[in-house]
């Protein structure tokens, strides 16, 4: 079974996000970057399928030079090879143009199954996996917490409001991973040492038959106008007095001043 | 030698950091308070290959150098010194058996140790022989095709939980240090038992115990190296162990500094964060500077060892400086936390208690100074 996993490198969840005035993206100074946590579930699932049924796992990421680190980490976990869409033309994209770049690259590859995280924790678009499926003309199941493979098809359990839904889909398909799908392994020491010997191929737009203006910022359908930090929380206010009067006063303030009730 | 970690070392560091944050940090404080040893942590470390870092690949290890090993030790020590010391205690018998053992000994013991199926321990210290290790009294008398051991060792890390003990005993007492030999003794051998479990000031998640030999018969194949090589083997082990303890001390110190910086920014007195006071800033600056110097010294010692150069005196300097730094930095961290630092609700008092033991084990810091001076004056 040939499995492709979409991987995005994102700022660590512990990062104290900062936006410099006038900038339209977060500042990367002093930020540590990690594999998007939902993509880790996708990688783990791919590795488990490979271990159970044989096959190989290819990671693919569109991103700056540094994104190669995320791919190496995935290789250290046990993936076999990686493709890095690494060119300025691929950068600054939105969910659409990123999906275009990935789908174009995937079209040139062999696959039975595509896995990815249900969302990336930086921009939280929840879109790329599903868009890739659409662009490739294959089915998808999103927000999956359990996956079973049978001959030529997959049975996926997905979270829906208040319960779960079980979906059967023919393969190839895109499955987007939700927390709970599995517990991702740590890269082992041996895995880390082997990772540097595994193929990590860098590709330019021409390599994937993409015109530079259909990927990255040029191909984006959305434009970020401004990016600002949320306003600092104002200090709280203490209402003094006897509890009974104070409670009345608080209700009044909530209604008239804060307008929340 | 470069000041920068290699790509693999950095990748390993990040993995160990994540492992330590997720698997060790949540249980470290309670394990310390209740003096609980967590065998499963060592199994998890083994799963990702960290118990056999320096062991050759043919025996299941990763065959990596000390420069890489110390990166792992420091990361783990940031969250739990007991686990970092445990890693060192697991590593020592492996590198000693690899270097001095026979082919049969390597085949028999290295894979179980590097894979964590068995835990190792290193037994040198005795009630009457601490710093003056060569005055040890435990005897190993030739008898038929084996040896009979008699004597007591104290303060043995992982005593009682380990399976394989590298034990120093005298085969020829009249020859002093040259009469010491080194043996592998397996748990369960008749005549081998465990005594008092020490109640400690810190490092409580790491069991420290007395081990006792009473007419304990071991086969001839238990001898590591030649008869009379024991003291040399022990000293070589300690040279390497000192690099480990130095790296662990750097981890402890770094953890204390991280806590102190965080706290100093949050805690307000006189209407401003205490970090705005120069008195606090200078303390933080000194802490950061000595930690950096200590780390570089530890790395230099590892580099010298890895490149086959004389490193004993630099390992002693690294151990001395890093552990004194850990003591100073953790004490200052408690100071920065004020009264809260003295309370168990915050991690810095635990780090301070942890730092203390690093000045004692693997040769006290007085002994390190002796080693350094002897090298200068020879
Ligand atoms: C938690 C813990 C774990 C340990 N684990 C192990 C283990 O796994 N295996 C093992 O074999 N041992 C272990 N030890 C023992 C440790 O190595 C010894 O405690 C250490 O070597 C000091 O010996 P001592 O305690 O007998 O102190 P002593 O040697 O009695 O020293 C007392 C004091 O005198 C000083 N001193 C001694 N000689 C001189 C001198 N010539 N000049 C100046 N000052 C001197 C010392 O520096 C110290 O300050 C452990 C100890 C501890 C606390």
From TrEMBL, chain A:
It comes from the Bacteria. GO terms for biological process: carboxylic acid catabolic process. The keyword Electron transport applies. One of its GO terms (cellular component) is cytosol. PROSITE patterns: ETF_BETA (PS01065). GO terms for molecular function: electron transfer activity. InterPro entries: ET-Flavoprotein_bsu_CS, ETF_a/b_N, ETF_b, ETF_beta_N, Rossmann-like_a/b/a_fold. Residues 23-212 form the Electron transfer flavoprotein alpha/beta-subunit N-terminal domain. It holds the Pfam family ETF. Belongs to the ETF beta-subunit/FixA family. The electron transfer flavoprotein serves as a specific electron acceptor for other dehydrogenases. It transfers the electrons to the main respiratory chain via ETF-ubiquinone oxidoreductase (ETF dehydrogenase). Heterodimer of an alpha and a beta subunit. This is Electron transfer flavoprotein subunit beta. It comes from Candidatus Abyssobacteria bacterium SURF_17. The lineage of its organism: Bacteria, Pseudomonadati, Candidatus Hydrogenedentota, Candidatus Abyssobacteria.
TrEMBL record, chain B:
Keywords: FAD, Flavoprotein, Oxidoreductase. Residues 6-117 form the Acyl-CoA dehydrogenase/oxidase N-terminal domain. Residues 121-216 form the Acyl-CoA oxidase/dehydrogenase middle domain. It comes from the Bacteria. InterPro entries: Acyl-CoA_DH_CS, Acyl-CoA_Oxase/DH_mid-dom, Acyl-CoA_Oxase/DH_mid-dom_sf, AcylCo_DH-like_C, AcylCo_DH/oxidase_C, AcylCoA_DH/ox_N, AcylCoA_DH/ox_N_sf, AcylCoA_DH/oxidase_NM_dom_sf. The keyword Flavoprotein applies. Its cofactor is FAD. Its EC number is 1.3.8.10. The keyword Iron-sulfur does not apply. Pfam families: Acyl-CoA_dh_1, Acyl-CoA_dh_M, Acyl-CoA_dh_N. Residues 228-377 form the Acyl-CoA dehydrogenase/oxidase C-terminal domain. One of its GO terms (molecular function) is flavin adenine dinucleotide binding. Belongs to the acyl-CoA dehydrogenase family. This is Cyclohex-1-ene-1-carbonyl-CoA dehydrogenase. It comes from Candidatus Abyssobacteria bacterium SURF_17.
